[in-house]
Amino acid sequence: MRCPNTIAVIALQALGAFAAPERSAAEECGPLGVMNVDVSTLPPTVGVNDIRKCLEHPAAGASDILQKRECWHGKAVGCSHSGWCYMSCGEANSGKWCWLAKHEGSGGWRSCHSDNDCHEKGLGCGQGNHCSSCHCSCDNRPDPDPKHHGV
Questions:
Q1: How many of the other CB atoms lie within 10 Å of CB of 96?
Q2: Do the domain assignments include residue 8?
Q3: Which domain holds residue 102?
Q4: Alpha carbon of residue 66 to chain centroid
Q5: Pick from 71, 80, 89, 90: nearest CA to 117
Q6: Is residue 113 one of the residues assigned to a domain?
Q7: pTM of the complete model
Q8: 13 vs 44: CA distance, rounded Å
Q9: What's the average pLDDT block by block, 10 residues per block, for the chain (151 residues)?
């Protein structure tokens, strides 16, 4: 009677041996970089498991708009053409904006289908050290054509 149990254990071990190794965070994130956070700086509502794996926004490098970080004077909160939430931030009429992420900015980047998707509680400007697509900013250029904003 032990024989079937032994075969089952051997079969399960063999399956594990043939399973593909798990990709490292660096391999998975590639040029987006890996998010590293000092957990002592997290807001009380954000847990370690809430932090996103990749540092930069998925649209990073996809367009000159993101690289130039042109000022935005359109809708206060919205869904970009490529399906990512953004919001105006900073001083009134400054044109500063940011990409929105869950868990007060430390979680996954918020994707969207419409502007209504971007009013979720707990969203905040993307956070991260040495992150060019994080935080509230713009480069003080003239107001961009709204058709091109949001990558």
A1: 20
A2: no
A3: 27-125
A4: 14
A5: 80
A6: yes
A7: 0.74
A8: 42
A9: 42 44 85 91 91 91 58 94 95 94 96 96 94 88 46 43
